[in-house]
Amino acid sequence: MGASVLLGITGGIAAYKAPLLVRLMVKAGMNVHVVMTRAATEFVTPMTLATLSGNSVSLDMWGERDHPAVKHISLADATRIAVVAPATANFIGKLANGIADDMLTTTLMAYNKPTIICPSMNVNMYQNPILQANLQKLNLFGYQMMIPDSGELACGWTGEGRMPEPEAIFREVERRLGPRDLDGLRVLVTAGPTEEPLDPVRFLTNRSSGRMGVAIAKRALARGADVTLISGPLKVATPHGVNHIPVRTALEMMEKVLERFHESDLVVKAAAVADFRPEIVHEEKIKKEELGATINLVRNPDILATLGSRKWPDQILVGFAAETSNAIQNARIKLKNKNVDILVLNDVSKTGAGFDCETNIVRLMFRSGDEEQLSLMSKEDVADKILSRALDLRRRVNH
Ligand code: CTP
Question: Rounded to the nearest 5°, which phi and psi values hold at 284?
Fold first, then answer.
């Protein structure tokens, strides 16, 4: 039997396509557990879904004969991914606002694994700013949205809002389930900026949001790794299931990273560590008259270079380089000087790359001298490439 999937169906007309999705998943060997809202049963019958999935369909919290109170927890524990198709505006509103008043929303409240939401509704409902704000909020919390198709809608309108075809949803579920090829591997990721305080209210920092590092942590987790994420202040939510150690300064990050380095198989240093910190950290807020025109800075230790000098041959070390000019030449020097196995070169001057955006354009540079230029892609896809290459290297050194 393949992976277990939780399929939530809510009360929209596109629910009539849910049985086709179940068929595709079952044919691919997945074990599908369906949870329907009451409204969904107006569009498609639980009997159809129970027959196609081969499992009983959950409808409400109180109707279950076996362990009614914990069914939502066992469903959450027993499955590896959840997909809600179709997801109505009402359901999205509830999920985004922590309302758990039926079996589906209660189960998802207890869910800490990847969840795909497939909005499906009339174009005006879809474009409603309240709905859009709810989607953004869910996105921020790590839920994955499938963008609805455009076209003729059941209500007679034409526009965005049509549920993607079952085939497309199925492919997305398959992609998200992915291989469990990092099973048993301990992955240490650093992410985000560091903050270097000058006094209790002022600090030096940089534009890093932490998206790239969080994407690596997320994908490593999805591929079966045991993931520790050590990060400065992040602008994005940390994925459930990752062991998150928040830090503030470069020195704190160094300490935490060194504590865990010896027990890590793969280390990805995506953090934008501040190279300098104020020489003196004042305990009280400094008055501007006392501050003067110059602040003395001292160098922070280079965490990546420290790891490079201490690593075992079978530990794979991945570093990042953010460059704006002479990118490739500078990155080749960093690769050597910091003794890393893979250097991910980020030309942050390109549009669609670098800080605070969802996509990235990177070049992977290997110790062997090989280089691989990747095209513009989502940070999660970049993360998958990095992890696959790191895994290849690890397999090579272990044979
Ligand atoms: N890095 C680190 N500790 C530092 C500075 C950087 O571990 N004190 C790591 C980052 O996590 C990243 C890599 O080094 O993986 C490259 O960071 P980058 O800022 O591009 O390069 P630097 O080595 O700091 O060089 P420069 O700022 O001169 O370009």
Answer: -110, 155
Residues 193 and 106 occupy one common structural domain: no
Ligand 1 contacts CB of residue 269 (under 6 A) = yes
**Considering only 45-49, 87-91, 123-127, 220-224, which range has the smallest mean pLDDT?**
220-224
Would you say residue 72 has pLDDT above 80? no
Query: In this structure, which residue's CA is closest to atom 22 in ligand 1?
Result: 321
pLDDT of residue 241: 76
Q: What is the DSSP string of 124-142?
A: HHHH-HHHHHHHHHHHHTT
Nearest atom within ligand 1 for CA of residue 344: 15
Q: State the residue range of the domain holding 391.
A: 186-397
Quick check: CB of 320 below 6 Å from ligand 1?
yes
Q: Are residues 354 and 237 in the same domain?
A: yes
3-class DSSP state of 314: coil
> Which among 177, 204, 238 is the end of a domain?
177
Average pLDDT, the chain: 93
Q: Which amino acid is at 125?
A: M
- Out of 334, 337, 345, 349, mutate this one to test ligand 1's pocket (max ligand atoms within 8 Å of CB): namely 334
Do 105 and 250 have their domain in common?
no
Task: Give pLDDT tens digits for 204-213.
Answer: 999 999 999 9
303 CB near ligand 1 (under 6 Å)? yes
Ligand 1 proximity of 189 Cβ (cutoff 6 Å): no
Do residues 364 and 250 both lie within one domain?
yes
> For residue range 162-175, what is the model confidence (pLDDT) as tens digits?
999 999 999 899 88
Report whether residue 300 contacts ligand 1, using a CB cutoff of 6 Å. yes
d(CA 17, CA 385): 33
CA of residue 272 to ligand 1 center, whole Å: 7
The residue written with tokens 């030449």 in the block is 329
Rounded distance between C-alpha atoms, residue 72 and residue 363, angstroms:
44
Q: In this structure, are 112 and 257 located in the same domain?
A: no
Q: Please count the structural domains in the chain.
A: 2
pLDDT the model gives residue 329: 94
Q: Which atom of ligand 1 is nearest to the CA of 322?
A: 20
Residues taking part in catalysis: 155
Q: Is the CB of 271 under 6 A from ligand 1?
A: yes
Q: SS3 breakdown of the chain: % helix, strand, coil, rounded to 5? A: 35, 25, 40
Q: Where among 151, 177, 203 does a domain terminate?
A: 177
